[in-house]
Amino acid sequence: MKTQLTNYRRLIGVLIVSALALVLQFVLGLPQYAQITISILGSLIALLMFIDMVQTLRSGKFGVDLLAITAVIATIVVGEYWAAMIVLLMLTGGDALEDYAANKANSELKSLIENSPTAAHLVSGDTIQDIKIDVVKIGDRLLVKPGEIIPVDGTITEGCVTVDEASLTGESRPIDKQTGDNVMSGAVNGDASFYMIADKTADDSQYQNIIRLVKQAESQPAHFVRLADRYAVPFTLAAYVIAGVAWYLSGDPVRFAEVLVVASPCPLILAAPIALVSGMSRGSRNGIIVKSGTIIEKLAGAKTFAFDKTGTITKGHLTVDDVFGTNGYTPDQVLQLAAGAEQQSSHILARSLVAAIPDRIPTAQDVRETTAEGVSAIIDGQLVKVGKAAFVTPDPIKKIDKTTVYVSVDGTYAATSVLLTNCAPKLSV
């Protein structure tokens, strides 16, 4: 058997030994064989864990797992083999759970890294060359194709596009960009290509800063964990002294083992990192980057939360809040026409319009999408345009300072659809 076993394999080993011992003692009526099984295999597992503990001590760290391992050996020696098995289950089970939580958090970090841009399209005169993102220099002219992740922070030099910055800012609605506007690495380009000048290298760009922040959070334990490690040495020594005194006064070595079992703080010590890492992992899955476990601890004492922009927590998608029909068109009519024209588009606003009226969408023909402007289509012999005000009609329209979509039918302004971010109830700020 290998010296180094994963915590998962150790837990499986302990479970197998426990099942075998249960069968031997309570099914076959062979308690002596059950004791031998637990004593031999339990000692072997405890020895492997002790070797890991020695390596941990050599690295300059000390934990209270040594106390639990000592309790296992002591209970086996005095014949309390079932107590030894219970401590082993707590110890290996807690380690396995901690590994599981850590792996979940690492998988979120891995997903974040995998989604980071790795290549860029360098424009040199009339040629376009694919290069690694690490060799992009400030001032390089780059091409960003539709649907690609923007490789580095830069400035648009040619093109009008719509980008999705939700992974960076949490803003669910798309952002329109034009020549001269800045774009951030990690944002997702829309349906049109554009040219940009790199303002920063990959290492200094926004997305890499976020990745570094998450890595830093993974490597920094919370104060509670450090506090537990800090008092591990005196706690362990005190437990040994009390156990020795109990043995001396009673004259029974079983008392020594009993004190060590009671003093083994496996649930307390392992609960903190499991809870903190699990919290960080859950936050990461919901788009919340937690700087360190200490931040999660501080949230327990928070009484007021302040949010920028709207003062609300959004769910990350848009819904139709209201429709204002005009020129004889009812809100329901124009919503059907707008959803019909937009049903073939992948734009985030298009999906919101279609979701608002999914069962009554008319058939559209000759659908044409103009990047960063809108969509036109023929519905029931009428030309329907959905998008920005200037796209749907040349006539002046009273604009609303919200996320809006304008609709026209055969050149006649028909309605304004107001889309708002789907939010949770407002909180006090």
TrEMBL record:
Residues 115-215 form the P-type ATPase A domain. GO terms for molecular function: ATP binding; ATP hydrolysis activity; P-type cadmium transporter activity. It is a multi-pass membrane protein. It catalyses: Cd(2+)(in) + ATP + H2O = Cd(2+)(out) + ADP + phosphate + H(+). It is found in: Cell membrane. GO terms for cellular component: plasma membrane. The chain crosses the membrane at residues 12-30, 36-54, 66-91, 231-249, 256-276. InterPro entries: ATPase_P-typ_cyto_dom_N, ATPase_P-typ_P_site, ATPase_P-typ_TM_dom_sf, ATPase_P-typ_transduc_dom_A_sf, ATPase_P-type_domA, Cation_Transport_ATPase_IB, HAD_sf, P_typ_ATPase. Its main location: membrane. Its EC number is 7.2.2.21. Belongs to the cation transport ATPase (P-type) (TC 3.A.3) family. Type IB subfamily. NCBIfam families: ATPase_P-type. This is Cd(2+)-exporting ATPase. It comes from Lentilactobacillus farraginis DSM 18382 = JCM 14108.
